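[[Local backbone shapes]]
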Amino acid sequence: MNATAARQTTFAVQCLDHVVLRVSDLPRALHFYRDVLGCTVARERPSLGMVHLHAGSSMIDLVDIHGKLGLPGGAAAGAQGRNMAHLCLRVEPFNEAQLREHLQMHGIAVDAPASSNFGAEGDGLSLYVQDPDGNGVELKGPSSDCGC
């Protein structure tokens, strides 16, 4: 689709509403996203093996691979493959030393120093970690372009 065709749609993407992650251990994943990253539980749906988490104005849905919604997806992501490259969470404030200290307190490794990466607001510093299922999570600070 070319740029002209894209402008002719009757709608415009406003933001990332939610992402659904299939996880092998729901309590472990919930601990990571809630207790380590600070997301809050919006709704738990045990009959589906699902927890909805607020992540700022977006949501992260965790689906147990052994639950009603997770089973159709097949095997869990593992050493030979992933569900995605990473998801990016915009965080503020972005203080690299404090972020590293917080993550280290929770046993989360950060191997590389913060680097500048492009995102929805422009270029800004990011750190990369992995959730308990090996999914990449980018923690991104404000854009240096927007004066935030």
User: Anything to note?
Assistant: The domain at 12-143 is CATH 3.10.180.10 (2,3-Dihydroxybiphenyl 1,2-Dioxygenase; domain 1).
